[in-house]
Amino acid sequence: MKVLYGFEYRRGTSVIHRIDPRSKMIYVILFTALTVYFVNPLVLLLVLSSSFPIVLISKITSRWAQSIKGSLFFIAFIFIFNFIGIVLATGSVYDAVISGISMSIRFIALISIFSVFFLTTSPEDLTQSMVQMRIPYDYALTFNMAMRFVPTLSREAQIIMDAQKSRGLEMEKGNLIQRIKNYIPVLIPLIISSFRRAELVADAMESRAFGASKKRTSLYVLAMGKRDALFILISVISFLLLLSLKLVFGIP
Amino acid sequence: MILFDDVSYSYSPGRYALEHINLNIGEAELAAILGENGAGKTTLVKHINGLLKPQSGKVTVSGIDTKDSTVATLARKVGLVFQNPDHQLFAETVEKELAFALVNFGLPPDEVSRRVDWAMKEFELTQYRERPPFMLSGGERKRLALASVLCYDPQILILDEPTTGQDSRQKTRLAALLKRINGEGKTVLVVTHDMEFVADFIPKVVLLSKGRVLAEGPAEEILTNRELLMSASLLPPQLAELSWDLALQRPTIDLEQVVLVASKLVGGPQR
Amino acid sequence: MAIIDVQALSYSYPDSPKPNILDVNLTVNEGEFVLITGPSGCGKTTFCRCLNGLIPISYGGTFSGRVIVDGLLTTEHPVYEIAQHLGLVFQNPENELFCTTVEREVAFGPENLALPRNEVRSRVEEALGVVGISHLWDKSPEELSGGEQQKVAIAALLAMKPKVLVLDEPTANLDPLSARSVLNILAKLNTESGVTIILVEHRLEMIAHIADRCAVFDDGRLVLVGEPGEVLYSEAVERMGIGIPKAVQVAKRLALNSKLGKKPLSSWDLAEIIRGASDDPL
Predict the structure, then answer these.
(1) Number of domains comprising chain A
(2) List of chain A residues whose C-beta atoms are within 8 Å of the C-beta of residue C81
(3) Which of B126, C124, C145, C256 is the most buried (most CB within 10 A)?
(4) Are strands B156-160 and B187-192 parallel, antiparallel or unpaired?
(5) Element spanning B214, H or E
(6) Do C267 and B196 touch (CB under 8 A)?
(7) pTM to 2 decimals?
(8) In this complex, do C40 and B265 lie within 8 Å of one another by their Cβ atoms?
(9) Is C113 touching A (CB cutoff 8 A)?
(10) Same structural domain for residues A1 and A116?
(11) How far apart are the first and last CA of chain B?
């Protein structure tokens, strides 16, 4: 599950890290729309490359690269299935290859855009931005907790796997059905443990007056500044430029 | 029986969890792997059943190089009981839980049920035969986890922090059990930072600190060596402290010894 | 002045026929340091949860008797209100800390109380300072050692400015040095800041000499309450699964209790008595 590695927030001091999550969300929404809007592989490559400067500025290159590498497996699948589909439908190998390449680039672009967002946005800032967007605190907090406990869960899964392997469980043995069954001794303790943890975390939260007031304070407040304005401006202009390729020049 | 030959291991580049470990643990030994949190104790024992393979050096268990063996094969000889029983209990019933390892090792059904019955009686779990493991109390779950490993009669038994959350009576019972298993010729290793438990019950100590073996020898010697314990960031056991406070010539962790000397100091015949 | 008043408390969990605690009576005065101990599974954890209202409000079950905390009856006030008078620290910091930095973790409580931002900030700084972890303010709780995590948990509760702090085996998962460090902080909180402390602990040798009183649970009942010296030197305690400090065991064997009327609770107390007695033999 190395792919997940490329989505875990890591603290940093770059400009991108300090930009409000909402600004980054605008970028993500605009450029995700572009990946869906276009079919031409060269344009999609441009969309993908929009994330490159962000990766470089925020110095998250190695982690970002890991998520891309991790997605290569899926890309192979996408390419093959798409290829087969198009060949069967149109009989044109050329079309199939182009389509396959487009799909693959689209997928990488999506992974890249989202990876960049999650690598540079802390769960708390994300939660805070949701609260400031008037999403009820309870929902925002649920999101925060889920993100915060992902590393804990993956660590626990590893321990459980070690424990069961120490009792003779061989994860790689057997046919596909057997291998899936081999996950039961790992999933069940993980799930039960998660339920238990949920109860304990709930107790801990209540013991710190969770729910005491409808309008809770927030130690940090997000405020958009000049950097945000600049970032949004650049995103919107790039978006419009790319959009014009289809609207004005008719490139699919 | 268990041989560590210049073993090193690190989880991330540059930071070593184990550095140049040399260790020779013989048959039927009863020893504690002692060290503070982060000293490398768990990393060390994971090398014994093959969960981790050394990045340099060699680990041999009963003559087999762990690099040439799978965890499943080594697990047949090396029983590792993890600290938190909830990290392994998953079956629908206690009976199935106990049978899990036995079935994995391919034992015939009648052998499986014989051993399961034995384990249930031995660990007082018979009344829970049909119960799901997670419905048992914390202490019972710990017993069940231990039982499910002893069920397949490994030659080497390793327990990771078995005394956390146990009261003194449970610890005494555990110690008696370990002594009995050791008496049957099995090697028993206890990974712990519980100084009192080691002082009271375990004769031999392997002292780990920051990934290195600082010392190996009789508990009496190591646990009364103040400088050694301090360099390992460990608190001495109470009787050792008392020995020093009383300025005993030969500090000890033996209660009777301390009482003897103290009563002489207090003057006159003992009561 | 009794800050905690427990009267005839009995409780059984929802799916359990047998009561987990039975007929418990205990009063704790403000500023006291009460040590609670007893064999495993005897109801200590349940008792802690009864003190801050999690039982019966969050847990349900069958509850009888009264628990009054700083004048508030726990069955009539929501947990978040009692939490401002009594803080509860749990055993496993991994399940207690859920924010991404220490600072935010400690701020969580005051934020919930909707205090003005500068008040939240000053409480966080104060709590971190009192516990001695100001330098960790920016760290992720995941990166910290067990002992540091527990200190964060304690700071997080202190930020609520409770009068009482209840801790349920806070050193259970810690190595001896970290355990001692945490217990020293509790002693300091009690003597210097006047916080009432109720501590459930097995490592009696580290803390018995600090406690004002010791309460022993067995099988759901409160069987002994008194000064640590009285309790640990009693005969009853020997038969239970309690880790009696070695100094006490030695002293009992030397019959210092009857010969000298002394009940040392720590190694150095014992050593002093013995040295004194050897200069002046019996």
Answers:
(1) 2
(2) 209, 212
(3) C124
(4) parallel
(5) strand B212-218
(6) no
(7) 0.87
(8) no
(9) yes
(10) yes
(11) 47
A32 and A102 co-located in one domain: yes
- B90/A184 touch (CB, cutoff 8 Å), yes or no: yes
> Between C246-253 and C267-279, two packed helices, what is the crossing angle to 10 degrees?
30
Place of tokens 């002093």: C272
Distance CA B177, CA B172 (A): 9
Q: Is C93 part of the contact surface with chain A (CB cutoff 8 Å)?
A: no
Residues near A49 by beta carbon (within 8 Å), at least 6 away in sequence? none
For residue C273, which phi and psi values (nearest 5 degrees)? -60, -45
In this structure, are A107 and A137 located in the same domain?
no
Rg (alpha carbons) of chain C, rounded to whole number: 20
Contact between A20 and A224 under an 8 Å Cβ cutoff? The reply is yes
Same domain as A4, residue A56: yes
Q: What gap in Å lies between CA B188 and CA B198, rounded to an integer?
A: 13
Tokens 């993500």 identify what position? A28
User: Residues A36-74: pLDDT tens digits?
Assistant: 888 888 888 888 888 888 888 888 888 888 888 878 878
pLDDT per residue over C45-71, tens digit each?
Answer: 999 999 999 999 888 899 999 999 999
- In the predicted model, residues of chain A with pLDDT beneath 70 are 1-6
Q: Which residue of A has its CA nearest to C139?
A: A11
**Domain coverage including residue A156:** 123-221
Which residues does chain B have with pLDDT short of 70? Answer: 267-271
**The predicted structure's pLDDT at residue A1:** 47
ipTM (interface pTM) = 0.88
Residue closest to C153 by CA, chosen among C135, C169, C141: C141
**φ, ψ at C10 (rounded to 5°):** -135, 145
Q: How many CA atoms lie within 13 A of C35 on its CB side?
A: 26
C-alpha dihedral, B253 to B259 to B264 to B266, nearest 10°: 110
Q: What does A135-155 look like in DSSP terms, one character per residue?
A: --HHHHHHHHHHHHHHHHHHH
Residue closest to C215 by CA, chosen among C32, C36, C46: C36
CA gap B55, B138 in Å, rounded:
37
